[in-house]
Write a structure and sequence with these properties.
mainly alpha, 72% helix, globular
Amino acid sequence: MSAAIDRLLAIMAQLRDPVSGCPWDKEQSYQSIVPYTLEEAYEVADAIAREDYAELKDELGDLLFQVVFYAQIAKEQQRFAFDDCVEAICQKLIRRHPHVFGSEQADSSEAVLQNWEAIKAGERQQQGKTSVLDNVPQALPALSRAYKLQKRCAQVGFDWPDVQGAWDKVQEEVQEVAELDSGDARLEEELGDLMFALVNVVRKQGFNPETVLRNANLKFERRFRAVEQHLAEQQLTPEQSNLQQMDALWDQVKLQEKQQGF
């Protein structure tokens, strides 16, 4: 394993070599490769969702390369090296698993998560970060960030006692949106409040909103592709049909899926 990592680090160093390296790789910075890192992370998630484990192997390699890329830039700037990243995560894992590497007890996943969050809170305080919401990355997708912000606040008791309170807030926000005209300057803000409130409902029901919406996207895509297939059988495209035709086919697809146990 060490030989494989050493080979990857050597390849990365060669790609960044000032004289003989790749022109594109030499031009990159922390900031410029962030979009590629995010793309690779999503490709990992996609391979897992499709249960394509041969592709997952390749995608994990691509994601590891991103880590090596950042570490090489940092090494050139004498900030840190790849080994420092490895040592940092080793220390963190040991520190945050005292029930494995220490004497504390945690007999369930819930207890582990409670300990984990308490340890993280202590780490934030040591770093001079006093807000419960410190260290929630601004760069997270908005849906995931809303979920994380709400979870952080719930840990200190700022939360609805049950899901009904969250549902009542959704209804309140729906009413506020319904009362606004399409050109009202407040509409965008109120729609944001509605989406934030709905994330709360999803969270209170024990689901991750990112996963819930991803599954809804997949279902929509599957059904619309089936609509396209039905149209193609009639030698039509969506552009050549109308909403009434497509809606009827959509209902047909939904019924077929229910009959098939989807």
